[in-house]
Design a protein that fits this description.
six-stranded antiparallel sheet, OB fold (Dihydrolipoamide Acetyltransferase, E2P), alpha+beta, about 35% strand, about 15% helix, 20 strands, 2 domains, D-amino Acid Aminotransferase, Chain A, domain 1
Length: about 325
């Protein structure tokens, strides 16, 4: 039973080659460890936060798994349209049980199992992955309702093909695991490669660094119609570059970027001790950045600065370039 810290992955630029690897999709959902003991089911996040009450429809599905006791490692997702919907997942984290139950009925979630940590009274932590995978396939048998077995392959090219074929569906990358590897709770003992995309963005403002003498981050926007909408920030610069940016941005200070559109936010309950004041710029600079995912029309994570794009018009930086249209239904991967 919890508390339990699952094994995690470290990011690399390329998938490892050679024999001895198993490749799996990286899902765009909530990582979740599911504990079952008879009719008692407990679901915890990777940070050991309870998730059971937010996804009540998964409880009966996990209760129907054959062994009386089991521990699964997996991901909770919500399938909509061609793929998964992370925004729908975040709506579940709500204090009112009535709203959670309503959402569960309207958009039921799915648990994608990719590892088996205990079967009955037997811990499988010290058992090699290839054996754990065989046990997991046997345990799940014919697909239970609301529980999917995560696809896996030993062919690197097949895994890379998933990234291309299912782009825009919620397949977030590829995870590589050693077939002879044991499960290492709390360690980054897996390798993940995330889909990297680039976008051209307008630099609509900036925040000062802690010393007030260097630029801390650039605030990025794209046009949605006539308005410039804030979409995220980039801050991967060394000290010399931060000093140079002060002079580069000086002629553009005092602009009206993000006026009428979504603007960078100020302090929130998560950032009360940080100074999030920002200065607007005239929307004339364009840069290319690398990103992985969008959420509610914004970059979910910090993005990497790639290069300046003096050849690009600010008005050409539109929201449309960020939307990867799915052409193949993600559920086809499970066939």
């Amino acid at each position: 039973m919890p508390p339990f810290t699952p094994m995690e992955a470290k990011v690399q630029a390329e998938l490892p080659r050679g024999d001895g690897w198993q490749y799996e999709p990286k899902w765009d959902g909530f990582r979740a460890v599911a504990f079952k003991d008879g009719d008692e089911v407990v679901i915890h996040s990777r940070n050991q936060k309870p998730l059971t009450r937010y996804f009540p429809e998964l409880v009966p599905a996990l209760q129907r798994i054959k062994p009386k006791r089991a521990v699964l490692d997996g991901e909770i997702v919500i399938f909509t349209g061609f793929g998964t919907d992370f925004d729908a997942m975040t709506l579940r984290i709500h204090p009112a049980a009535s709203r959670v139950n309503m959402l569960a009925a309207e958009q039921p979630s799915t648990y994608i199992a990719f590892d088996l940590l205990a079967d009955g009274d037997e811990s499988l932590i010290e058992v090699p992955l290839k054996t754990r995978r065989q046990r997991l396939e046997k345990l799940l048998g014919p697909k239970p309702e609301s529980i999917y077995l995560s696809p896996a392959t030993r062919d690197r090219e097949v895994a890379l093909g998933w990234l291309k074929e299912y782009r825009g569906t919620g397949l977030d990358g590829i995870v590589a695991k050693r077939l002879e590897g044991i499960y290492k709770p709390g360690e980054r003992a897996m390798i993940k490669v995330k889909e990297q995309r680039t976008a051209d963005c307008v630099v609509g403002g900036f925040r000062w660094g802690n010393d007030g003498k260097r630029v801390g981050s650039l605030l990025l926007g794209v046009y949605d119609g006539k308005t410039l909408e804030y979409i995220g920030h980039t801050s991967g610069f060394d000290d010399a570059q931060r000093r140079d940016l002060v002079g580069m941005l000086e002629p553009l200070r005092g602009g009206t970027s993000f006026e009428g559109g979504r603007a960078p936010g100020g302090p929130s309950r998560w950032s009360q001790d940080r100074d999030l004041a920002w200065e607007p710029l005239r929307p004339e600079l364009v840069c290319e950045v690398a990103f992985d995912r969008l959420e509610n029309g914004r970059f979910r994570h910090g993005v990497g600065f790639v290069r300046w794009r003096p050849d690009k018009s600010p008005k050409s930086c539109t929201l449309a370039q960020l939307k990867a249209e799915a052409s193949v239904e993600l559920k086809k991967l499970f066939a």
